[in-house]
Amino acid sequence: MGKVLVLLSGLMMLQTAMAADGTISFSGAIVEPSCTTATQLQGTSVTCTREGVDKVRTIALNQSQQALPYQLGTVRVKSVNNLKFIEVTYK
């Protein structure tokens, strides 16, 4: 009788773990700031901070894709009508 009761309670818990609508919710917090960009006369740089330590990488405007500091993602430089756009993509 004890084995049947354990099996039935296991099946009941399995049903409650299934999501009927396919929605999965996460809770938490973003604990690190996003990377920042700065454009000066000397060029453009990207600064990323992890655990209180800043890493700065100079962005070459003539290259199309470059890595962010800490390997957090990529930076892509796009040109449209003599304007340069910096697109940051995080992993």
Describe this structure in words.
The structure is a single chain. This protein has one helix at 2-17, and strands spanning 36-40, 43-50, 53-59, 65-67, 73-80, 83-90. The longest helix is centred in the N-terminal third of the chain and has 16 residues, at 2-17. The strands form two sheets. It has a three-stranded antiparallel beta sheet with strand order 1-2-3, with no helix packed on it. A three-stranded antiparallel beta sheet has the order 4-5-6, with no helix packed on it. The protein is 18% helix and 43% strand. It contains one helix and six strands. The radius of gyration is 24 Å and the shape is extended. The chain is of the alpha+beta class and 91 residues long. The chain has a domain at 32-91. Strand 1 (36-40) and strand 2 form a beta hairpin. Residues 1-19 form the signal peptide. This is Type 1 fimbrial protein. Keywords: Signal.
What is the gist of this entry?
Residues 1-19 form the signal peptide. This protein is an alpha+beta fold.
Walk me through the topology:
Layout: H1 2-17, E1 36-40, E2 43-50, E3 53-59, E4 65-67, E5 73-80, E6 83-90
What is the β-strand count?
Answer: 6
Residues in helices, as a percent range: 10-25%
N-to-C SSE series? HEEEEEE
The overall pLDDT average reads 76
Low-pLDDT residue spans: 1-16
Question: What percent strand?
Answer: 35-45%
* Shape descriptor: extended
The oligomerization state is single chain
Tally of contiguous helical segments: 1
